[in-house]
Each structure stands twice: as structure tokens, then as C-alpha cells.
TrEMBL record:
Name this protein carries in UniProt: Branched-chain amino acid ABC transporter substrate-binding protein
Keywords assigned: Amino-acid transport, Signal, Transport
Signal peptide annotation: 1-22
Transport as UniProt keyword: yes
InterPro entries recorded: Leu-bd (IPR028081), Leu_Ile_Val-bd (IPR000709), Peripla_BP_I (IPR028082)
GO biological process, one term: amino acid transport
Stored Pfam families: Peripla_BP_6
Chain ranges of the Leucine-binding protein domain: 26-370
Protein family per UniProt: Belongs to the leucine-binding protein family.
PANTHER family the record matches: AMINO ACID BINDING PROTEIN, LEU/ILE/VAL-BINDING ABC TRANSPORTER SUBUNIT
Species of the source: Caldimonas brevitalea
Length: 379
């Protein structure tokens, strides 16, 4: 009888010990193109997510009285909308607690419906097409300024600061490229500039001779390209070979450390002006510098563009879970929507009623000696 009692007591003690050490696994999905022409940007995003997850697990997080372990479920959408929706459905089927991504607007927008239907919060750290947060979904958020702000600012800058009177616009016909080019054109025309050419290519093109020859005849002061660095680099190289001396402008898609390499060293000092959604100044700059140094140490790679925004997006999502005392998407989603004043490495994050970041900053850059150099932070 005594032996039986001891067994029961021992079993109860083991159960309590097990409960004390039990961890809830919280799955965070991440989607970006980790294959294809902009895989370097996709890996940059994924590294930002891994850095946040690793730090959270090292720190130890308790949600609703339970210790949690975060697990990153990373998917590759190759920048393709069909693959993007397939990745989204896979994450939904895996019962992820939230999603950070996708990178491209063209994959983020169709995927957002799948997450909305499943009630899973989605924060994009890089999709800038305005449509993303204007579909009426309660699950969509972003931590960067949209194309209305980014493209419009660049358009005005082209006319007012660069004194561009004649402007040529090219886009890659993706949701991002065409969207940012449209907003650039509106901004330039609103500032009094004349758009003398509007051309398009695609996001996998390598030969722009016909387009650039046509543009050269119109003698533009500025050429704007809506698209990514993998296409912008060869385009700059071919502009030089054709003797086109115009300034070259683009959005955050071209504003990378890789651009001079992709242009085979043909980027002249001050020739390229681009903008990155987001920007830090003053004391905040130290936090970003520290992040970049820690990122380099961890991955032996420099930050390309969006890794800090991915990092902040993961942390904002987890902060909402902690505040809601729940990892249940239905319970922490309303708290996430009310995010106001979260201090991240990219600045202060607050969401408006659509899920857009409030008072989003932009950083203007140029290139000198093959290195990206900051011009100014604007809001």
C-alpha cells in the first residue's frame, strides 16, 4: 500500500515538474524569394527574421503564464505570385501563429487574402504597393512607408533638387515596379516636370537596348526605373554604353549594396539617387548601427535593405502576443492593430486604421566610390 502511495506521489511530482518545464511552440511564418534574381534580398529578409527569433528564444519569453519557444517556418516564393499563394496556404495549413512577409508587393497582395480568410496576422516589412492595406482586411500591416509617399517624394526630388525638366520612366510591370513608377510620375508632374517617355520591361529582362535607344533620342535629364536591383544594374551599364548621361533614380528595390556590382562598376559618383522606405536619425541611428554590426557578426553578411524591418516586424508581433497574454491570432490581433509607440531599430512603430505605419520616414541615398551614401531622411 505504501509503495502504491509513493508511486502516486512520485507521478504527481513528475507531472508538476513537466508542467513547469513545458514550453508552448509558437510558429512564425516568413516568406521571401530565396531563389531567383533577387534571392540576395530574400535571404536578407530571412536573416532578419532568424535574428529576432534567436534573440527572443535566448531571452526567454512568457505568454499567458507559459514559457514559449519560437520557431521560424521559412518559405520561398521566388517572387512569383502563384508560388506566393502556395506558400501562404502551406503556412496556414501548418497553423502558424503569424506571418512576416512577403517581400514583393506582387506576392504579398494575393497572399494577404489567404491569411485574412484564416484570421492570421500578416506584417509585411517591404511591400509598398498601397493596395496591400486597402483591401479591407483586418489582418494586414506593414512597417514601411507605401509607394504614394516613396514614389511621390522621389518625383518631387527629381524636379526640385535635381532640376530634372525632362524625365523618362521605365517599370517592370510588377505590382511594386509599376506602382512606384506611377506615383513617381504623379509627383514629378505635380512639381512641374515633363515625362517625355514611359516604357516598360519585365523583372527578368537583361537587354534594354531598344528601350534605352528610344529614350536617348528624347534627351532626358532623369531616368526613373520602377523595379529591383537585379534589372537596374544591367540597365545602368547599358545606359553608360549608349552614352546616356541622365541621372538614374529608383525606389527601395534598387537601393541596395549590391547595385554597383550588378552594374559591373559603371555607377558614377552621384549618378544614382534612390530611396529606402524607413529612416533613422539622431539617437536612433546608434540602434541601427548596432543592429547592422550584430547582423554582420552573426551572418557574416551586410544588411541589404529590409532585414531591420523584418526584425522589428517579428518583435512587434511578439510584443502584441505578450500584451494580449495569448498567442491565439484571434486574441492578439486586436492588440497588434493598436500598436502605438513601439521602439524598434527602424524607429517608432505605430499603425493607423488600415495597418499602415504612421508618419513613415524615407531615406534618400546616392552612391560614391561604389558605396551607398545617405543624403537625407524625409517624412
Amino acid at each position: 500500500m505504501q509503495f502504491k502511495v509513493n508511486l502516486i506521489v512520485g507521478a504527481a511530482a513528475l507531472t508538476l515538474a513537466g508542467a513547469a518545464f513545458a514550453q508552448e511552440v509558437v510558429r512564425i511564418g516568413h516568406v521571401a524569394p530565396t531563389s531567383g534574381g533577387i534571392a540576395h534580398l530574400g535571404k536578407d529578409n530571412e536573416f532578419g527574421a532568424r535574428m529576432a527569433i534567436d534573440e527572443l528564444n535566448a531571452k526567454g519569453v512568457t505568454i499567458g503564464g507559459k514559457k514559449v519557444k519560437f520557431e521560424l517556418i521559412a518559405e520561398d516564393d521566388a517572387g512569383d505570385p502563384k508560388q506566393g499563394t502556395a506558400a501562404a496556404q502551406k503556412l496556414v495549413d501548418s497553423k502558424v501563429h503569424g506571418v512576416v512577409g512577403h517581400l514583393n508587393s506582387g506576392t504579398t497582395i494575393p497572399a494577404s487574402r489567404i491569411y485574412s480568410d484564416a484570421g492570421i496576422p500578416q506584417i509585411s516589412p517591404s511591400a509598398t504597393n498601397p493596395k496591400y492595406t486597402r483591401q479591407g482586411f483586418k489582418t494586414t500591416f506593414r512597417t514601411v512607408a507605401d509607394d504614394v509617399h516613396l514614389g511621390g517624394t522621389l518625383g518631387r526630388y527629381a524636379v526640385n533638387q535635381l532640376k530634372g525638366k525632362t524625365i523618362a520612366v521605365i517599370d517592370d510591370r510588377t505590382a511594386y515596379g509599376q506602382g512606384v513608377a506611377d506615383e513617381f510620375e504623379k509627383g514629378a508632374k505635380g512639381a512641374g516636370g515633363s515625362v517625355v517617355a514611359r516604357e516598360f520591361t519585365n523583372d527578368k529582362a537583361t537587354d534594354f537596348t531598344a528601350i534605352l535607344t528610344s529614350i536617348k533620342a528624347k534627351k532626358p535629364d532623369v531616368v526613373f526605373y520602377g523595379g529591383m536591383d537585379a534589372v537596374a544594374g544591367p540597365m545602368i551599364r547599358q545606359m553608360k554604353s549608349l552614352g546616356i548621361k541622365a541621372k538614374f533614380m529608383g525606389g527601395d528595390g534598387i537601393c541596395t549594396g549590391e547595385l554597383p556590382k550588378l552594374a559591373a562598376g559603371t555607377v558614377s559618383d552621384g549618378q544614382v539617387i534612390c530611396a529606402e522606405a524607413g529612416g533613422v536619425e539622431g539617437e536612433q541611428k546608434k540602434a541601427m548601427d548596432d543592429f547592422r554590426a550584430a547582423f554582420k557578426k552573426k551572418f557574416n553578411a551586410d544588411v541589404q535593405i529590409y532585414a531591420p524591418y523584418v526584425y522589428d516586424s517579428v518583435n512587434v508581433m511578439v510584443a502584441a502576443m505578450v500584451k494580449a497574454n495569448s498567442t491565439d491570432p484571434a486574441k492578439y490581433l486586436p492588440v497588434l492593430a493598436k500598436t502605438d509607440g513601439y521602439k524598434g531599430v527602424t524607429g517608432t512603430i505605430s499603425f493607423d486604421e488600415k495597418g499602415d505605419i504612421k508618419n513613415g520616414a524615407l531615406t534618400l541615398y546616392t552612391y560614391k566610390g561604389g558605396q551607398r551614401e545617405q543624403i537625407a531622411v524625409v517624412r
